[in-house]
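Comment thread on ticket #2218

A.B. wrote:
> Attaching the input chain for the structure job we discussed in standup.
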Amino acid sequence: MAILAIRRFPDPLLKQPTRLLASVHRDARHLIGQMVATMRHHPRCVGLAAPQIGSPFRLAVMDARGHPKTTSSQGLIVLVNPEILQTRGQLIHREGCLSVPDLTANVQRAEWVRLSAMDQEGRVRELVLEGFEAVIAQHEVDHLDGTLFLDRVADLRTDVFKRKRYF
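C.D. wrote:
> Ran it. Output below, let me know if you need it in another format.
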């Protein structure tokens, strides 16, 4: 699978809401495969949304396995047309993003989410995610809504940091 180029802020596509996919057809499955390969190509990357690779569709992939912040993981999760149905609790989490490569920030998120989405086979699934996986899902759904993690920062002066490089 090809590794796709990552769009970086201030690319205007990153600030636009995405379009629903009517079905998970062959081209969509191919795009999913490319997104998974691209996500796995980048060290410590746990999620990728379609706008980040130049696609206008409501599609994201995530996989928290092996990341130091992961306490439990459901493995690879494909989110086609995801919708967050319910949230609980709050936590503040340090987030980063391939599309904003030089910064991280403290962002308030729900610590538990229930969401609905189609998987890579087009089956509608309901998922319950907690902790780090819940944070990832919210971050990726934000991308699909045209929102970046920096848009959720309470105070740009105290909650945004230069990224530490691990590689």
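A.B. wrote:
> Thanks. Noting for the ticket: The mean pLDDT is 95.
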